[in-house]
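Cross-posted from the bioinformatics board.
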Amino acid sequence: MARDFAARFRVAPGKRVQLAKHDPADASAFPDRQAAEAQSRDDAAAINEWQDKLYAEGRRALLVVLQGADTAGKDGTIRHVFNDTGPLGVTVTSFRRPSEEELAHDFLWRAHLACPRRGFIGIFNRSHYEDVLVGRVRKLAPADAIEARYEQINAFEKTLAENGTTILKFMLHISRKEQGERLQDRLDQPKSRWKFNPGDLEDRKLWDAYQAAYEVMLHRCSTPWAPWHVVPADRKWARNAAVAAIVRETLEAMNPDYPRPDWNPKDFKVD
Amino acid sequence: MARDFAARFRVAPGKRVQLAKHDPADASAFPDRQAAEAQSRDDAAAINEWQDKLYAEGRRALLVVLQGADTAGKDGTIRHVFNDTGPLGVTVTSFRRPSEEELAHDFLWRAHLACPRRGFIGIFNRSHYEDVLVGRVRKLAPADAIEARYEQINAFEKTLAENGTTILKFMLHISRKEQGERLQDRLDQPKSRWKFNPGDLEDRKLWDAYQAAYEVMLHRCSTPWAPWHVVPADRKWARNAAVAAIVRETLEAMNPDYPRPDWNPKDFKVD
């Protein structure tokens, strides 16, 4: 395939990002919705095939980091992109409010613990980036400690990359207006009311501060070894298509293969 | 649904099992293969719906334990039964040869660590039962220590059950002849050769001792709170249909539901 969707969404290392200039409803990478949906399905099936080879090979891992405001669709993306792959060989870690034990360690400790083993795809639903997002916006640590975290994250991810983990990071970029509609939907529909967290409205009041924190994160932590991608997320189908395409391309570039054992099958007799 | 597939495969508590009397090719529960395959697909979709409610409810968990000889189809069962459910809210733990750290703890330690959190389905691909299977056959611990494990397992599982984890255990019952064909296939096909482990032939030589160990395990550890099911596994489609049906029935009986928040949605304004 001569595709390069990653290049359309990737944040070049060192580049300053102004999220206001990224239209959350942009779907120009996918001119036709039905074609995009068909492509997503095809990509999801291909990701499943690649994951089988990755698992068989057992030498490398893929780490997919998902960040985004509430309702941006982190769960939905995982469902659409990785459901063909199933739970075997795929781990999903949802980073919630840290436990007492987690808080007793440095902020990267729980992230490291959750990294995928060789052969696996690991998905972070939120991640160590919360510590430069909510951490920064709500001043959960001194400013200089927060400031130091960007380079600490880069060093951590470089170590992972140099030890066989390919890293893909996606910022699901939703508009304030679309978030408002989705939150209202959660309130209105009894079946989804459980997803509504009154605290989400508190974060929504801090919208601009969060957007600024995302911009710093994208600027400081999109690296050659762990690039960020800004994915417009107001249209779910375009969001899914972008993430699926980039994950597939990345696995293709990794090109894992079934290992060739160093023994001769003829030497074994099954009696 | 007025089905009760579990009853067809369940080992009654205290019952002695003679595996030689269980035909591994038996498919009498599913007279028509195509109908069974359609039912499996339908069950997998229903399991996905139930899992969403289980997750939303967030109060209980389901633990599915899979045991069986090499090639019995533990991985394949997980793929078929849980692929609709995807990796979100489902964890799979493959129990391999214990690490030094695991061996430094009691045999249930690593199993406890891998138990599903509330709201999740946890799948054990092999499990703590290895310690009364390979442990018994290869005498990896003194006989009285092995002997004590059956009651220790029952007590452990009872604690899990009393704390909100429903437990389903499946012994995938394959014939020695079918295993021979599957092992030979792994040797013959370059794409699956990596799955062949020369050590599997060593276990195969101990076939009768393993069958005897399974019989003790089924007799001693099928409890009202954590029943064993013997699933004929020579025919993959019948194996998948049995496990899918029983998992679905169990989730239906658990009947998780979307929680009703104790706040009034009208009290919140999304601005």
